[in-house]
Give the backbone structure.
Amino acid sequence: MHYRRLGDSDLEVSAISLGSWLTYGVGVEAEKARACLDRAFDVGINFIDTANAYGRGAAETFLGEALAGRPRDSYVLATKVYFPMSDTDRGLSAAQIEKQLDASLRRLGCDYVDLYQCHRYDDETPLEETMRALTRAVEGGKARHVGFSEWPADKIRAAIDMAGVVRFVSSQPQYSLLWRAPEAEVIPLSAANGISQIVWSPLAQGVLTGKYRPDAPPPAGSRATSDEMGGWIDRFLTRPTLEGVERLKPVAAEAGLSLAQFALAWVLREPNVASAIIGASRPEQVDENAAAADARVDPALFAEAERIVAGA
């Protein structure tokens, strides 16, 4: 496992990290989830990402129980705030940040998180109010660093330009061979300002594993067949996209990798990416995905893959 510095922070995070969106505490049985977490530590993953909204606290509660007994300085723990936790609790107001951070810490069973992230931008709260609340969280020792997920570039720039507040060290965008939107503005802006990317859905919700075929229904038990774990996978299940993914398989094979490993290695080729978040329901998936951190791929193969998906 390789480790990368997270922005201008002092955090060294594993190039592959373990996430809990739609899985732990929600779609995956606790015993299987614990087995995946244990395997992640075995293969050198030290970065665990979650959010208060995942199962409305269920994922954090699971992690709090599963991490109990492990030395707190042996892993990097990140969570998020913004999405509804009740009919009245949502957003990035000062009151919500304080309330939800305290609740997250209780569920996680710890005194601080290493990274506290704004899960989306809150148009209903002044940015200065949000940034000053995050600053107090860091100054109070409840969060070591702060980040954001899926913020528009103009809001990122406004936060960067604000004086007297804590600095963001991370951005968490969706990014994969099939979704390259952050390359236009977010990655260049982040790279110029000490902010690293923590990528979610680097396998396009499993489509870049090659399990979904253009001429066959989704496999039984796959994410696409799950009401709980399906998310927004439909956007990647079009026939042209799936046919393009089929054409990626021999390119990955030429690199000596599975398609999933190749897709993760492609994400990690970007210097501004500190870590790619994987989801796993079986320990074997952790093993396969973690191996991508050590992959060395001819850039010409990445270029060929980009041509293939661009024409899909």
Summary: The first strand starts at residue 3 and ends at 5.
